[in-house]
Every structure is written in structure tokens, then in C-alpha cells.
Amino acid sequence: MKPQLVLHICCAPDEAWVVHSLRDKYDLHCYFCNPNISPLNEYNLRLEQAKNVAQHYNVPFSSDEYKPQSWEQAISEVSDTPERGERCRRCFHLRLTRTALFCKENGYKTFTTVMSISPHKSITMLNETGQSIAQAQELQYMPFDFKKNNGFRNSITLSKELGLYRQDYCGCRLSRHERDERIKRRSESG
What we know:
Number of domains: 1
Strand order of the largest sheet: 3-2-1-4-5
Strand content: 5-15%
Number of helices: 7
CATH architecture: 3-Layer(aba) Sandwich
Shape: globular
Number of strands: 5
Largest sheet: 5 strands, parallel
Radius of gyration: 16 Å
Order of helices and strands: EHEHEHHEHEHH
CATH topology: Rossmann fold
CATH class: Alpha Beta
Helix content: 40-55%
CATH superfamily: HUPs
Distance between the termini: 57 Å
């Protein structure tokens, strides 16, 4: 019997590669928890794509209630910090705490997140946050680094094969603004 593992899902491209990689070793359950994603139509698109990936791989899927105000409250004191900074730590904490509570409510003992596949995330910060939450909730956090062995590149390839929507910002309104500013600077200099 394979060990159970809840995967916190942030988006379908990251989910697809991780599920593809782990499905033979673990009995997976995908959990979509992203109150950070903005605007609502972006949230709904990512949620639908994540459901489709879980269905494609025949993996159970659940999602948290969308409460963007919980994210706004969590990052309010650090909203001026850049991506990979304190606002990301607080965002990870919120989403992984909700994942841990889902585990406890549903009898799961172990969880991880697919976010470690992103080159834009601090793996150390992410895994420290997950392990701290797991310890506080008397659960186990699996500290994967899905970027290893070309994981990010493989996720891009698999996403294309599956016809998945690939977003170009983390999901929050602040990262979207940062993306828009980068695009503006490139167009002005180019």
C-alpha cells in the first residue's frame, strides 16, 4: 500500500508534473488553496485547470473556499516587500496552514506543496514554513524540491502536451503589478 500524501496545488502546470512524478510512489490527494490569486476570473481559471489535471491523472481533488481577504490580512504589514520576501513567507504560511487543517479534518498525516517547482520561490523559505506548520499541527511535511532534475522545464513540456494554461505571474495582485511593471520597462527600453 502506498503512503498517502496531500499535495497543496497552486496551479495546473506545477500540479501536472508533480502528480506525474509522484503518482507511482504515493496515494495522492490534490488540495487547491489559493486565497492569494487575483482577480477572481484568474482564480477560477486556475481552479478549473487544476481540477482537469487531477481528473486526467485520476487523483482525488478538493479545494478550499476562496477568501482573498484572508490573504490581504496575512500580508498587510509586509505588502511593500518584493516577491521572495516576507510577503511570500506569510502567503506560504497561510496556504500551508489551510492545507494542514484540511489534512487534520480528513485524516491525512502528510502533506507537501507543488510550489517548490517554481524558480521564483525560495525553496528554503517554503520548506521551513511547511515543516514549522506540520510540527505545530502534529503532521509531517515532505520537503521536496521539484525543481531538481529539470523539473521546471519538464513541467513546461508536460503543460504544453496537456494544453494547460500557463500563467505569467505568481497569482497575487502584487506579483501581477510587478509583472506589469517589468513588461512596461521592457517596452520602453526596447
